[in-house]
């Protein structure tokens, strides 16, 4: 997620202080990992430098002066462009879980155990998201649904991979034997 564009979108409703942006961001977009204040002010500094926000007011406070930020016309254009650009689908073609399964097979460990452990973790996460969804507002329900659908797809992959482990192991053994034989002659066949 782009923190900068999210801040710009939040600022379109009206000028805000940095701590107000952090609170709004944390409430709507980052329940699990709230932003650090350093991220907030570094992002605002970058947006200011790039002309996407401006300082609307400076108010005295008990500590440092409090700056209120407003979006500029360039910032509105930037967030509009960002909102109309489609996100590139993440194809997960080489993820960590796939790597673990292959390495387990290559090292003689149980790939089925890797899959079982991961399935249990996915189910735990799904239970937690289902509880959060039941207790949440519509925004929580939508984000939980998004995550749940991804976890369901992962579970289908885990089950399919478990059903194909013997075939995958046999193909890997055959490929390893074939390469070793060809390597003796100094040739590598791919």
How would you describe what is shown here?
- With 190 residues, the chain is mainly α.
- The chain has two domains: 3-84, Arc Repressor Mutant, subunit A (Orthogonal Bundle); 96-184.
- 68% of the residues lie in helices and 8% in strands.
- The chain contains seven helices and three strands, in the order αβααββαααα.
- Residues 178-190 have low confidence and may be disordered.
- InterPro entries: Tscrpt_reg_PadR_N (IPR005149), WH-like_DNA-bd_sf (IPR036388), WH_DNA-bd_sf (IPR036390).
- This is PadR family transcriptional regulator.
- Residues 8-77 form the Transcription regulator PadR N-terminal domain.
Note the quaternary state here. Answer: single chain
The sequence of SSEs as H and E is: HEHHEEHHHH
Spatially, the strands of the biggest sheet line up as: 1-3-2
Q: How many strand elements?
A: 3
Distance between the termini: 38 Å
* Helicity, as a percent range: 55-70%
The coarse silhouette is elongated
Computed CA radius of gyration, to the nearest angstrom: 25 Å
